[in-house]
């Protein structure tokens, strides 16, 4: 959007309305919006990180890589610094709304373009949803992005929850209904009616009470508006038709409310299993709202803190045995009162009212503009009362785009006023001329510097030619006026060009930065802050691109410890020249040794997991832990080995008496390097610790599991060695071939040491030897 504005102001002169300007009131509203977002909401978002009950700051600083630290901050869970994530959503929505306002006002035909974008998204979601239902496809998005728990019945092929679908369709449906009634030709009306019918079916297919309420409100507004038009025109035919339609609508609603099973029967007759009692009140929402009101009374002035709803409702629900505790209030205004308090909520509502007044002032210049305003107002109020529009990014951003466009609609100015520049230009006459040409209206003026313009009415062929001539003369005189004002426009345009060019450049940089450095397929970070050392974890989708950064030590691998959702599970390491699958069962462990990039630019690794389970609206496969172990030795599969730790400055793992692991080192295929030590007090030179190492090279295989151990080839090498002192360290190097993919290592020791049974510590592990990394020199 910044690029469109920058291009229109810099290179696309034909795309720019030369006469764009702002009312002073509009500038005041924009200033209030940004002061509220940045100055008030931003401060409260930062404050919430440290003062919201049961919400804590995730130690993202422990994660290697600047990009992963940023990803950790933005991908926070709902219980940990969620306010920061929510604030960035709000900031993005404010930017989208502001840019939409400017495009609608500055770019020629910009508001039509943005209206088309607002309609395109809902049409795409609805069309794809019905197409998937027709072809028996449960979801249109891959499992790495979505889990559709509702099957074919709730139009959730793109959004995983039907409560998110109908608010997304609301703004697009408002535009198409307005366009249908305001169209000047029957062809346009048929197209608009067809798209409106498709979106209405999409809303009803979600089987949501809020969606059904939205449709009834839309239909009622349209019928009463047409009835008002009939009264104004004193058209008996229109009045009679509207009266019949209103009577039919009232009768249908009365019948449905009293015989709700009829709606279910109608839905089943066309292939839908509509929910029982779809028009009855949702008692769960009523209980949540009652609880929200009680929570609000505990801190009525300043609220409980920005983005604190889930924490406070969870605490209240546990004390009062609530049946439902949801992460949103399903009512924007109730949630605002709880989180922000009365003072801040009044400020937000005041700004929203100013935006609505601005939209009213500008939309009335469109054909049937009052109808558009009423439909737009309903598209915001209904979802805000019974659902939410600020919880899911696509819904939030689409509404911001819609309202920004409405606020930026070009207006017809009164030249007698001096608080804004006149904005009529011949490229935008389609917006204003309908008012000016009807009845030969004169544009009022009291300033002799402006031109009195009369748009007369002419009949017949001769009159048509005279009308075209008069219109041409009108345009020439307007152009003459605007060229006199070109200096002011150029000065203002220079400032805007620099601003939007810089914003577009920053956005492009961020897009490339995130594309090159962020992991894809990972879900929000979660922290376990109760342990002595803080750790982070996140669930991965069935398919993921995981970024691996190096630390200042410059070690070869980031080794991610995993907790699969269930076993057995397989992971496919998909490199550019090969693909290798590792399968683990209940007695074996899976690791993800991923070759590192550098400290600033990671190396991305494409992984695919065979097992996944649904969790809400997502599929999860395995949990990985941050920070990953930085090591020159990568272990992907292991049996009878303990977790990673550091011993004498080397990262490694303790073995039980007999252990087996699949490894690679220093990102080389032709060599395996590792060290062996054992800081145990139970052996000496007189009674050394003996062990045997067998190494196998895996070359002609693309997968590995425990079954491979039953049919091993001849070992590449077998070494018997011993340690005589606890401080001794031995380095082992096994040469293989460039065709080797992994190396399988088996270690057998002659004894183990249990620190707990020997009275040394509470460590209850049977330790034989410590397998550590080697230097890659």
Descriptive notes:
The protein has 777 residues and is α+β, with helices and mostly antiparallel strands. It has helices at 2-10, 24-51, 66-74, 82-106, 110-135, 162-182, 186-205, 209-233, 236-258, 260-269, 283-298, 309-320, 332-363, 369-386, 393-407, 429-437, 460-484, 486-517; strands spanning 520-522, 526-528, 535-548, 557-564, 569-574, 579-584, 589-595, 603-609, 613-615, 618-620, 622-626, 629-631, 633-647, 650-665, 671-677, 689-698, 703-704, 717-723, 729-735, 742-749, 770-772. The strands form 2 sheets. It has a 19-stranded mixed β-sheet that branches. Strands 9-10 form a two-stranded antiparallel sheet. The longest helix has 32 residues, at 332-363. The protein is elongated, with a radius of gyration of 34 Å.
Give the N-terminus to C-terminus distance in angstroms: 51 Å
- Kindly state the number of beta strands: 21
Number of helical stretches of at least 4 residues: 18
Could you name the ranges where pLDDT drops below 50 across 5 or more consecutive residues?
413-459, 480-489
Amount of beta strand: 15-25%
Structural class by SSE content: alpha+beta
Shape: elongated
Oligomer: single chain
Please bin the fraction of helical residues: 40-55%
> How would you state the average pLDDT, rounded?
82
Radius of gyration: 34 Å
What profile does the largest beta sheet have? Answer: 19 strands, mixed
